[in-house]
Amino acid sequence: MTASQEQGDRVLEARSLSKSFGPVRALHDVSLVVRPGAVHALVGENGAGKSTLAKLLAGIERPTAGSMTLAGRPFAPRDRAAAKRAGINMVPQQLSLVGELSLVENYLLVGPRRLADRRSARALLTETLERAGVAVELDTPTSALTQAHRQLGEIVVALAEGAHTLILDEPTASLGPLEVGGLFAHLRSLCALGTAIVLITHRLDEVRQVADDLTVLSHGENVHHGSAAGLEPSQIARLMVGELAAAPARADRTIGEVVLAAEGLVAASTRDSPLDGVDITVRSGEIVGIAGVAGSGQNLLLDVLGGFVQPSAGTVALAGTAAGASASASVFQRAGLAWIPEERSEAVVPTMTLAENLTVYSTAIGSSSRVGRPTASKVGARLQAFDVRPPRPDLLASGLSGGNQQKLLAARELGSAETPRAVLAYGPAQGLDLRAAQAIRERLAALAAEGAAVVVASHDLDEVLGVADRVLVMFAGRVVADLLIAQATTERIGRAMAGLTGTPPTADPEPEVQV
């Protein structure tokens, strides 16, 4: 059999798939063809059915109706293990690598062989790395790897398990521009070897960059299936959500007094660059963006500012609390701090209902929450306001898609009747479609207008530039640039993110500057 014939025998086809969860219809009559050697982008609004379709292809869920074929033969995996044996594997958005284990040990944990043979596993992974043109450390605990290398490591493990079709759920959500480019280069190399890639993404420019084929879902139904060639991001956006209203112009805000301040922060982490003498001040009415490639220290900085990690040196002060290095997250929360972490799993409890997640602060044992417990009607109204789908207060959070879990988290932290004193948000729009991302940006701007001090960190430069009045750029645990938004060109920030700047940070703006 020739290589082209073998590839032809790997075509994965879904025909009229439907899936319901009780009264909720997640998919209806969806069809698609996944070709070997091609990147097939799968896009749509949050709750459009992307994750459900991916889980059907990967054997994680079974369809209510419809059928699938692989290489022209019926394909109806009973579970994920059966799909893996057939060569279909899914890399979830929340990576499944065990951080304490190396890549070799992670493979031994999930590999098909019953006997653990470290030498054979290492040889297989080394061969897979070479074949895929990927360089990832095999013997280091995966928690010490960068986000980009953890992503590549998960892909390599899937390939070593025998996958010829990879389903990647939002693989670029936590990657910076340079890392995204590197990942896409690797994906194209895999396609050249005959691997089929299903790429779930909300970044529509990525479709133009890397996709060969495109499926657009809207409310669980196909609205486009075919070639991605010639489609502009604006056209894809209209297929997804119709005409998107233009973002409102930036409103003038008066920058007030310092609300959040840190000085001389030194801290260490196993998953991020150590902080090395970081200073930061954020004033009432101000939105400060923090940019940097993964592992530059911005994640650790927000953990320290939020009281989740205690610095070995330096101080953190939030208005209403005493300055010092020992304030805990609970102290800051009671003083009016809202918090959205990079990993939503650190803040959303999947085994609790939507209502319980929204009221977790006011119902916690020993709580002295700054706001009372919302009524049932207010819970429902908040879910509707943040477009959480489905807006069922009694639904377990685990029943939501990743994007809707993100909206649930935003509803809790940003939707309170009382304006927070400060907001720490890491990638608040990650995993969100265009409409939802715009709504989150507008909410952050509204909170700043009400007097909150807002910090937004993200690997997505557009997310930072879309809201920030001032941009801090981090590299190797230090702030290497502090720019007013008028100075924050993509080129200037990009060079700073790569450590290619010797320019000292500019001074903070004066308190009464209008933005």
From TrEMBL:
Pfam families to which the protein is assigned, alphabetical: ABC_tran
GO molecular function: ATP binding; ATP hydrolysis activity
SMART domains the record matches: AAA
Keyword set includes rRNA-binding: no
Keywords assigned: ATP-binding, Nucleotide-binding
Entry-linked CDD domains: ABC_Carb_Monos_I
UniProt-listed InterPro entries: AAA+_ATPase, ABC_carbohydrate_import_ATPase, ABC_transporter-like_ATP-bd, P-loop_NTPase
Sequence ranges assigned to domain ABC transporter in this UniProt record: 12-244, 260-501
Cross-referenced PROSITE patterns: ABC_TRANSPORTER_2
Name this polypeptide is given: ATP-binding cassette domain-containing protein
